[in-house]
Amino acid sequence: MTSSSKKGPPTETGKALSRLLQAKGRSQYSVAKAAGSSQPYLNQVVRGERKPSADWLDLVADTMELTDEERAKLHRAGAKDQGFKIDLDD
Predict the structure, then answer these.
(1) Residue 32 has pLDDT above 60, yes or no
(2) Domains and CATH numbers, the chain
C-alpha cells in the first residue's frame, strides 16, 4: 500500500522558503514581483527545480523583511542544497 499523503518541497531551500511564505502570509507572486523576480522562478526554487544564488536569497529575505534568524535559516538551507558542509550554529 502506498501513502497518498502530500509530500513537501524536495529541497531544504524549498522547505524553508515555503514555510516562510506561509508564516509571513505572502504569496509567491507578491514576493517575486516585489523582489523584481518572476513567480515561475520562485516556484521552481520552492519545488526544488532551481538552486538560487546567495544574492537571490538575500533579495527575497529583504523583500519579505525576514529577521536575522529567519534569514540565517534560509541561507543555511541554501548552503545544504549546494552541498556545503559547514556548521553555522554559533
Answers:
(1) yes
(2) 27-80 (1.10.260)
